[in-house]
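Researcher: I'd like a structural prediction for the single chain below. Treat it as a standalone chain; there are no partners to consider.
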Amino acid sequence: MTVHFAPIPKCKSLVKALFSSPSNGNPWLSEIPGGSVHLYSRGLYALADGVKIILGNRGKNEGKVWLPDYFCKEPLILLRNNNISLDFYPIKEDLSPDWDAIENDIRKTCSPDILILVHYFGFPNQIDKARNLCDIYKIDLLEDAAHMLLPSNGMGQSVVIFSPRKYLPIPEGGVLYIPERFTDNSTENVSNSCKYKMVSKWIVRRLTQRIMLIFHIPWYKFKKFLQRGVNNNGQYISGNNSEAFPDKFTLRLLSLIEQDLDNVIEKRRENYVRLCQAVNGIKGVRILFPTLQDKVCPYMFPIIVSEGTDLIKRKLQDHGIPASSWPDLPDEVLETKDEHESAIWLREHILLLPIHQDLSEKQMEHLATAVSNVLREMDLSLIV
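Model: Treating it as a single chain, here is the predicted structure.
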């Protein structure tokens, strides 16, 4: 049996989207009082504009940004192109920031303009501690919630970014939340046209994915084709590139899917618990987030394995399961490994499993059984 790596749009939704009203991003104001939201094609464009807005409110065009060392390399292209100075603070093995190390660095050097806090895999990450530190040292906090579907309680005081395309069957999708206290100098949306070529390619890939499921064709045989994303070469800097903004069809499809977000959350939570039960107690395996708090919508199911991550991925692939790992870390982190040991260790030991809302009962049963069997057969060493 094949387990697909991402949710697939229903054919009737694709047709209905042609006649629907576009989304205005209201779900991302659901738990946040006041403020405004802006929609982008991807989260990395929202991140670039979020940094630009914060620096503008500090009276600057350039500045210093601190972000965790466990961070994807790709989204930083736009910040580098804007001459933003980037420094990477260490995180612990539970993905929480190393606050002592951060404070020591502030005292040795100087405070950054912006501290980025990442909410990994859909789980809130010590917002109160981050705010307290930022208040003490006059730093602006930016919350990277690209792994969260919707805002959680406590958000709303900081600029926040989301990336709904990671959760939902839409071609594009990034969201930027701006609190009322900020002057909104976000980039004007210059895209009012449909990106016919991009959308048509996306639809073909997703329909191919559905056909492969019907005929039990292993997904990894067409991995590069199915996972091909929106092209980005870092050209967007200040909003002159219309690629930064979502296509009309995307917004119309999003408006339909928004009506079913409660079911999306419920299904992902059920699948997460199912995998928790499947791997709990297996030697050499640690569930990164063993407790699923109320209202948390998990992005993926991350586990830490003591060894053999690549071999486990290959074995699961043989069972039709798209296990994955974290993308490349920033070059600065890899060049100073002694200062970022936890991030590098996590990059080598975290295994990510799908739990999205389109997985059927049979697929989840196959996924849970295969993962449990493969991990037990590996006879992993204990995690120290």
